[in-house]
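Teaching assistant here, posting this on the class forum so everyone can see the example we discussed in section. The complex has two components, and the goal was to see what a joint structure prediction looks like when all of them are supplied at once.
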Amino acid sequence: MNSVQSLIQPEILAQIGFAGVLALTFAGALIAVFPRNILYNVLGLIVCLTGVAGLFLYLGSPFIAMMELLIYVGAICISIIFAIMLSRPLHLDLPKRHLPKVGLSLGVGAVVFIMLSAIISRTAWQPAAVRSSDWSITTIGKYLLTRYDLVFEVISLVLLVAILGSIIIAGYARRRPS
Amino acid sequence: MNSLSVYLFVAALLFSLGIFGVFQRRSLIGMLIAIELMLNGASINFMAFNRFLAPDPIVGQIYTLFIMGIAAAEAAIALSIIVAVFRRLRSINIERAQELRG
């Protein structure tokens, strides 16, 4: 037992876990963008969001990581899968690639990434002088109900309107077939 | 390895992959997936600045929660529009959705 503990250092284990989470995120993002079958894209998005939840865990916030899994993987990805099932038979036609378009968009993405990474590597980030170390969920709840009260209410109103609007849009399309 | 710039590079890579996906795809659902990638890059940025720089480490988490709420609303609206467009045109290819073209 003692030899095993000396063999596997917790820091090295944390490094390996971090590399695994990064690999999960990148692989998921690549699968989410590149294949032409739309179902593979959704599965890649699920893998990528799980990796992002792991990144949030490494950033010291298990609550946000759980919310990420719950909202993105549990709600958004499942509803995207429902929309795929409702819209197009998967076996019909894979959309053909248009090679100049793919090349141009690859160029645009590369330019954006190069600019962003130049900005990131040139800036000297200064941490704030006084930093509180309060990370707890209790404080998140307190802030949500005091300082960010109005934003919280407006977000819930936006969600309500979005739910009603999506029901109305999908329902009208059913009632008036062209 | 576990430093601010690593997280910022990850977020930038996710964001540019999302931009690439939005420009490259022709199905509406593929574009929606790419937009979700871009939103996730933004939330990673918020959480990283929150962890390493911010004076109050609660605010970034609250902003990430708000981003998730906005993303959920956006996905609901976009998927209902996609279903409506498919029922009308029998296709979700954006190059066929040209009824509004002047």
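For the discussion questions: Chain B has a mean pLDDT of 87. Chain B touches chain A through 72 residues (CB under 8 Å). Think about how each of these relates to the inputs above.
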